[in-house]
Amino acid sequence: MAAAMAGCATSPVDYGTSLSQQDQKWATPQCQRARAAASDYAVREKTHPGWEFAALGPYGLGIIAATKEHEQKQRRLLARDLHLQCSSLPLPKELQGDMGAASPDKVKYP
Asked: What is the reported pLDDT for 28?
């Protein structure tokens, strides 16, 4: 529910393709690692098992909402990292602010 109110975060892979490939940071090893991490996350997000079974239990909707909120946060963290590693432009407002201490490369997807 909180994720629905917060809005959907763009896929990190889609965000990465929106950045300029002409930017001096684009060809750096850091940018290449950030793009690979975004791509890996996108694959894991598409292949993880669905949460439909959780809706059957008494806490199912809460579990689904928490999972969706976590996915949105991870998308924003990866998009932020992509921007910082691959673009010389200032960080967009939607990617600014404290997004928590978790780093996208340290979080394990279920």
From this structure: 93
**Cβ contact 99:36 at 8 Å:** no
Helix or strand or coil: residue 48? coil
SS3 51: coil
Q: What is the pLDDT of residue 14?
A: 83
Show the tokens assigned to 42.
Answer: 């996108």
Nearest Cα residue to 81 out of 35, 40, 44: 35
Query: Which pLDDT does position 101 carry in this prediction?
Result: 46
The whole-angstrom separation of Cα 75 and Cα 42 is: 9
- Which residues of the chain fall below pLDDT 50? 1-7, 101-104
List helix spans (H) across the chain: 2-6, 12-18, 29-47, 60-86
The structure tokens listed for 25 are 């940071």
As a whole number of angstroms, the distance between CA 29 and CA 44 comes to 22
Residue type, 68: K
- Quote the pTM value: 0.69
